[in-house]
Amino acid sequence: MKKELIQLQHISKSFDGNLVIDDLNLSIYENSFVTLLGPSGCGKTTILRIIGGFERPDEGKVIFDGQDITGLAPNKRQLNTVFQKYALFTHMDVAENIAFGLKIKNKPSNYIKDKIKYALKLVNLEGFEHRMPDSLSGGQQQRVAIARAIVNEPKVLLLDEPLGALDLKLRQDMQYELIRLKNELGITFIYVTHDQEEALTMSDHIVVMNQGYIQQEGSPEQIYNEPENAFVADFIGDSNILHATMVRDELVNILGTNFVCVDKGFGENNPVDVVIRPEDIELVPPGKGTLPGVVTHVIFKGVHYEMEVNAGGYDWLVHSTRLNEVGSKVDISVDPFNIQVMNKPESEDEEALSVEDA
């Protein structure tokens, strides 16, 4: 079992009277890739800055490897931060940028030289020692910023939307590079992003946040396949989110039609929310499924067709490798295991960004 490395205990933080984080508790384990995911203003960067020591919480404690570091300065913590804006020193070459932190610590010159060579090899920039930052591409600058962070041998690397300024291809390449680095270095990565695909691709553990609260945390598979509320379901991937009624265990009424499901414990005739992913809907010939409908829109996405099917007065989003032409009459069929039943939200924070009324 992995060792608990960081504990955030009852963290609260306000800016100008506005509560940004409210009584947040979070545990982060050694050698894990944790992503704080959520929309702008949800508090994820504030959490990262509190861990890094750049912000001090109004209430609560930051425990690092068993020690209370809440009041410790950033340079005294066993971690380094990589920002979206790489913050490289433009008057220094690559080697000098990487060596900066080591020189401040008065490390011997031979040690620094070896570390520079090691770091450049790790980020695939061997031979770039004497290049200036302005001669590098965005991806190369980001690699230098990461190299500068890892030469200090931190136990934790904090990354604040570090790929946000890169184009799509570079961003995807860097995602794989970060996974490789994490595995090779054996250190803990804490990553902030609003990009759901980025989070699902790289993380061992995802923490979904909204308005200063943790909505759900778990593995990428858990977050995607078993969202705990409508906000998480809507924020992570495409979803059909519908108001429904739990008739009884393993039977839910959606849009006036009963669907067999596998969920239990929601009571009888109770209002619930239901999530069905577009790829989990099968379009079958009329009379062969559960709910009749008509295909109203089709877009070819390369690996699949994205279709809208009006059924029961709701426009269902469907992903399929099989094309059904606009105007086709179809039935919607869903495997009981692919119907995710959730309790109605207790607060507005848990509601989806846009849940259509059924």
Brief digest:
23% of the residues lie in helices and 35% in strands.
Radius of gyration: 24 Å
CATH topology of the largest domain: Rossmann fold
Helix coverage percent: 10-25%
**Number of extended strands:** 20
**Count of runs of 4 or more consecutive helical residues:** 8
**SS class:** alpha+beta
Secondary-structure arrangement, i.e. CATH architecture of the largest domain: 3-Layer(aba) Sandwich
| Elements, N to C (H/E) | EEEHEEEHHHEHEHEEHHEEEEEEEEEE
Assembly type of the chains comes to: single chain
CATH superfamily of the largest domain: P-loop containing nucleotide triphosphate hydrolases
Integer tally of domains: 2
Note the main sheet: 6 strands, mixed
Distance between the termini: 44 Å
Poorly predicted tracts of residues: 353-358
Envelope shape:
elongated
**What is the percentage of strand-forming residues?**
35-45%
Mean pLDDT metric: 89
Q: What spatial order of strands do you see in the largest sheet?
A: 6-7-8-3-9-10
